[in-house]
Specification:
With 108 residues, the protein is an all-alpha fold. It is built from three helices and no strands. The protein is elongated and about 85 Å long.
Length: 108
C-alpha cells in the first residue's frame, strides 16, 4: 500500500437544489416588507405609531436577511440565540423608550 492510494480526489461543491428557492423567497419577503414600509410612511397615524411600525419592519427585514441569505437556521442553537436575542430585545427597548418619551411630552 502506497501513500498515493490514501489521497482522496478533489471534490466539487454543488449547491443544494433548495437554496435558490429560499433566496427567491427571501427576496420576495424583503420586497413585501419594503412595500409595507412605504405604505406605513403614508398612513395618517401618530408619529410614534409610525416610528414603532417602521422599527418593527426593520427588525423583520433583518430577520429575513439572517434566515434567507445568511443561513442562520443551519447554525448551532447557541449562535442562533446570540444573534436573535438582540434582534428581539433591542426593538422592545426602543419601543418602550419611544412610548415613554411620547407619554412624558404629552403630560407637560
Amino acid at each position: 500500500m502506497t501513500a498515493d492510494e490514501n489521497v482522496l480526489p478533489p471534490t466539487i461543491s454543488v449547491p443544494k437544489p433548495g437554496r435558490g428557492g429560499r433566496l427567491v423567497l427571501g427576496l420576495g419577503g424583503l420586497l413585501a416588507l419594503t412595500a409595507l414600509e412605504v405604505l406605513v410612511v403614508g398612513l395618517p397615524v401618530d408619529r410614534t405609531a409610525r416610528i414603532t411600525a417602521l422599527v418593527g419592519l426593520a427588525m423583520a427585514k433583518a430577520l429575513v436577511v439572517l434566515v434567507a441569505f445568511l443561513g442562520i437556521g443551519r447554525e448551532s442553537r447557541l449562535l442562533r440565540l446570540a444573534l436573535l436575542a438582540p434582534l428581539l430585545l433591542a426593538p422592545a427597548f426602543a419601543v418602550a423608550l419611544m412610548l415613554d418619551t411620547a407619554f412624558r411630552v404629552t403630560q407637560r
